[in-house]
Prior knowledge:
With 238 residues, the protein is α/β, with parallel strands linked by helices. It is 42% helix and 21% strand.
Amino acid sequence: MEKKILVVEDEPQLARLVEMHLSDAGCSVTVAHRGAEGLAAAADQLFDLVVLDLMLPDMDGLDVCRQLRQRDDYLPILMLTARSGEVDRVLGLELGADDYLTKPFSVRELVARVNAILRRVERMAAERETVDDAPIVFDELAIDREKRRVLVKGEPVKLTAKEFDLLVQFARHPGRVYTRTQILDLVWGYGEGTYEHTVNSHINRLRAKIEDDPSQPRFIQTVWGIGYRFFEPSTSGD
């Protein structure tokens, strides 16, 4: 089935280039040049993914991302930005962007990232059809996959889209050891080793949100020299 992509980008030449290459990749592309126009398009029809520029003339792309994340349905977001600062990147991810690409970028990489997100979303949808969607509970940690909500000791914890997907991947397979490359493939949709630092940073942030003591994690344990695993109730911590 043809995937529908919304591109929110104010630079006409770049917007046309992205539209052309995503169309060549078999996607149906709608282009909006302003944030309000993009929000209106997203409210008017269903899209499979949004390619969102951070710097827009009428409103910040972060505001657009924030409003899209207030919707009941989950809409993947790939954020584009000319900013390269860590603070801007982390802020975009904290607001719910699924991935982040800094300008200038190769169109080939953009298409690869888009395809990776779409594959991951399709895999998640297929798993929801075959796997019991009941909440996952490990003592004080509760994960509601249907509502994409996490509670720790009864209190809601705000996770980014990737942090939530990462936690679900671990929690569905307690005790299974994952290499960083496997985690990249399963959660990000691509497994290039050059992005392994992304796994480390996400796990560190996730631990800071769900662990009593992130320096001595109980739930997400390091398997030295290999990768990570989620604890099994019958085993001791890391």
